[in-house]
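Data card: per-record layout.
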Amino acid sequence: MKQGDFILIDFVGRVLGTGEIFDLTNPEVAKKEGIFNPKQKYEPALVIIGARMVIPGVEKRLLEMKPGDEREFSVKPEDAFGPRNPKLIKIISRANFLRQKINPVPGLFVTIDRRQARIQSVSGGRIRTDFNHPLAGKELHYKLKVVKNITATKEKIDSFLDYYGLKGEPELKQGTLTIKTEKPLDKMIEKIISDTIKKWIREVKAVKFAKSAGAEKKKEISDKVPS
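The structure for this 227-residue chain is written out next.
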């Protein structure tokens, strides 16, 4: 594989030593391990090589592989989620949690100042909070297969929108991609999607967002319903 390739991968990621699965795409493995979640979507995952959609240690391996290849390998912390940083463990007052309507209990994952953290301990009004990534400092083990190399422009666009969980109607004409959605997107999300598509799909020079025909039809029906 090479920089800029759109590929689909199947994988099982475990913590080396404990065998704990932290992520996977295969439903049969999830069932066998007793961690199957019917609300989770199990299918090959999209990766754009070079777009930092996977950890560095996995991307390095992908560059050595081709469609159909399957490998097992370990990834050191420095090529995964980095070492644990003691400076990211903070003592936060209980009042800060109460203002956000959070009841702090050990083990709870919370979002503080737009950063995810885990509460380690609660002692009176002092809450010990860890802002390290849950997998920081851990060596990982992957079993990974390159399922497909996506080359068609339309399929690249469709797979990218699906990656973002975006239900849209994309249409590419003369370098301009119009994405029609039922609900308007946050402007920041629109910018991220637009910038990423233009960077990695060379046929797309501009991106526009518009309401889908379905959204207009729903609005029309809603307007006709008597109050």
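Known properties of this structure: The chain has three domains: 1-83+137-151, 86-130, 152-221. Confidence is low (pLDDT under 50) at residues 219-223.

See the next section for split statistics.
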